[in-house]
Each structure stands twice: as structure tokens, then as C-alpha cells.
Amino acid sequence: MAGPRYIADPANALTSVALDGLTVLFHAPSGMTHIVASPAPEILDALRAGPADAAELLRRLRARFEFDGDEAIHARLGELEAAGLVRRA
Amino acid sequence: MRHSLALQIGPVAFRIGSAWRSPLDALARLYAGYPAPADGLCDFTVRLEPERPWRRFVRPSVAIRGDYVLPDAAPLALAHGLLAAEMGMNLQMALGQRRWLLLHAATVERDGRAIVMTGESGAGKSTLAALLGERGWRLMGDEFALLDMDAGTLLPFPRAISLKNGAIGVLEAEAGPGRFGPRLAGTPKGDIRHLRPNREAIARMGEGAKPALILFPRFGEAAAVRGVGQAEVFMRLTQASTNYVALGCRGFDALTGLVRSVPALAIDYPDTETAVGLIADFRRELAA
After folding, report:
1. Cα distance between residue A27 and residue B241, in whole Å
2. Which candidate, A71, A56, A69, A21, places its Cα nearest to that of A41?
3. To which H or E segment does residue B195 belong?
4. Do A60 and A39 touch, CB atoms closer than 8 A?
5. 3-state secondary structure of B56
6. Distance of residue B95 Cα from the nearest chain A Cα, in angstroms
7. Taking the model in full, what pTM does it have?
8. Cα B72 to the chain's mean position, in Å?
9. How far apart are CA B138 and CA B108, in angstroms?
10. How far apart are CA B171 and CA B131, in angstroms?
11. B248 contacts in A (CB within 8 Å)?
12. Do the beta carbons of residue B88 and residue B98 sit within 8 Å?
């Protein structure tokens, strides 16, 4: 059974700046600032291609990066959802 | 208000009104030599009022009011009226200022390069800035650094320096007695004495400077210097800013711009002379 599908805000809703290996994000819809580590910025970028469940997201990420961590993707999506940076489609 | 005084401090004009004359007399003495606002218009108003009408006379008690108010702020004794005026001006800036990104930080400048020092209360930034201000640096401010979000420069805001407890004696040995306010004993923060910045700091309070170094000083430890990563600097500066959240994306752009372009160091120091020595070293390195 497929899990939940997630969606991210369009690129113009998020300003992103890399600082020493971490990324700071300004999320315009909420006015909140977040400090995130990889692979969070990559996940947000991959979700901009359209809604995806965890399996589809892994496929998109692996097309561009070496990415192992089937379990980790659920944890990262959960954190991004709690932060309001992704939501269920 | 019964009594009032207008003061221009850097780019900000304040009007301070008071139900009593004595706090404004003390304020006028402390800020002797500061200009009045050029056009007579003020950005913020502070009002020192009796907590209840009869408290103007009976055990006078000064409530800090103004354009922006903290509802639960405790009133102060009339003997501490000068402190109430100073706290009132800080409050207006912290709650109402939107034109610049405000950092709770002390700033000094030399050779056109500004050093921003930020840390929690008690980290020693006011004492250090005050001492540097007497040792060839220009004091730009001991409380708030004002970052111009378009130009990336810092603007001076040279208020009277609030010296607490042990710092009072350190500066009494450096600056003439005419520049000090009265010693305010037994305030909620202990003993406080204000010091007027020197003539140069006041004369050049319209002149900004480019930030060259961000310092996180910590008093009371053995001397040590360490680099601080940009993400940590960013996080600490968002915490040190009173209006970062209110400024939204402009604040984010300005602060990330500052963090990416200016190096940062954390310094521990056992006494202010050690810190002054470390900062002299940094100055040589910045000039090299």
C-alpha cells in the first residue's frame, strides 16, 4: 500500500542560504526561519516536481544523488511536515 | 506631559515626557552636548508617569509608558527615574523599531571597520565597548547595533553607557567625572552608573561603518579564542535581534548577508585588559 503523498511550497515561497554546510531557510508563508541539514534541502527541491510519496521521492533523489536510507526518508519527511515545510497532498 | 525633553541619538529622535522634573534634569545633564532633533519631530515617545495619580506625591513610583509598553513592567522609585527614562528608550527601540535590523550588541569602530560584540547580559560587552571607547576606538553604541538592511552598514546609536556594579570603577578610572550620571544604588540590576560617550562618539553619531568582525565575548574565563561557524553565528544573531521576526524576508536577507560577509570569533577573557589586548590583535589582523 502506498504511503501518504507530500507536497512542498513553490520555490518562490522559500529563500535558502547555505552557511557552512547547513542551510538556513526563510519560509515566506509562515514568516519562519529554519536551519536544516542535508538531505532536507534536497527533499524540498525534489518535491517541487510535484507531489510524491516516500518511494517516489527516493526515486527522484537517487536520480540525482547517492542516497541510501529508506527508513530515514520517513523520519525526514515527518520533521519537515512538523516544521510546516511540507504538507500532505 | 508636565516636563519634556527631546534627544537625537544617532538616527533616532526621542521625546521623553515626565510627571516629575528630576529625571529629566538628570537626563539633560547626562546627554549634555547631544543635539535636539533637527526638525523637532520624534520617532518615539517615552512617558514617565506615576503608577497611580497620588503616587506622583506619595512614595513616588515611576511607571514607564510610551508608544510601546510592556504591560507587566514593574515601576521604579523616583530616585531611579533616570534609569526609567533609559529603559523606556530601550523599550521603544526593542518593540517599535522596524527601519533597521536591531542587534542587542555593542559596537566600536576604528579605521572605518566596526566590531560588533554580542552576548547575554553579563558577558561584559558594555564594559568592553566603553573601555575601547576611551582607548582610541569610536564607541558606536553599547546596547543596540543598527544594521542598514540595504547598505549592510552599521549606524551609530551612542546612548549613555549603562555600567553595572564592578564595571563602574573600571570606567571611573578612565573617564572624567563630568561624564558620569549619578550612581543609582540598589536598582533591580544592582548598582548602575551611566557614562556619556566621549566627544568624538557624539560628533560622529551620523557616520555609519562597515562591519568587519562579529565577536561573542564571555567574561570570567581563561583567555581563549575560537572561530564560530556561520550557521551558529546566524542562530545567535537571530536570538540577539529584537526585531528579526517582525522584519520578515528583509531581515533574513540582511542577516544572512552579514553572516556570510563578516568573520566571527568567540572570545573568553578573565579581565577587560586581556580583552582589549585581544581586540588590538584582531585590529592588526584585519588591517593586514
Report:
1. 18
2. A21
3. strand B190-195
4. no
5. helix
6. 18
7. 0.92
8. 23
9. 5
10. 7
11. 26, 28, 31
12. no
Is B227 at the interface with chain A, CB within 8 A? no
Residue with cell 566600536: B108
Cα distance between residue B257 and residue A15, in whole Å: 13
Nearest CA in chain A to B236: A35
Helices (H) and strands (E) in chain A, counts: 3, 5
End-to-end CA distance of chain B: 54
Asked if B248 lies within 8 A of A24 by C-beta distance, the reply is: no
Closest residue on chain B to A34 (Cα): B235
CA distance linking residue B237 with residue B148, whole number of Å? 15
The closest alpha carbon to B214, from B231, B235, B233, belongs to B233
User: B232: which residues sit within 8 A by CB, 6+ positions away?
Assistant: none
Topology of domain B101-287 in CATH is Rossmann fold (3.40.50)
Name the nearest CA neighbour of B93 among B85, B81, B102: B102
User: Phi and psi for B186 in degrees, rounded to 5?
Assistant: 70, 35
Rounded CA separation B217/B119 (Å) = 6
B212: its cell numbers = 568587519
Pseudo-torsion of CA B206, B209, B215, B216, nearest 10°?
30
Q: Parse chain B into domains and list their residue ranges.
A: 3-96, 101-287
Interface predicted TM-score (ipTM) of this complex, two decimals: 0.88
- The amino acid occupying position A79 is E
Q: What is the pLDDT along chain B (288 residues), one digit of tens a residue?
A: 799 999 999 999 999 999 999 999 999 999 999 999 988 899 999 999 998 887 787 788 899 999 998 887 888 999 899 999 999 999 999 999 999 999 999 999 999 999 999 987 777 889 999 999 999 999 999 999 999 999 999 999 999 999 999 999 999 999 999 999 999 999 988 999 999 999 999 999 999 999 999 999 999 889 999 999 999 999 999 999 999 999 999 999 999 999 999 999 999 999 989 999 999 999 999 988
The answer to whether residues B87 and B65 touch, using CB atoms and an 8 Å cutoff, is: no
For chain A, the residue count is 89
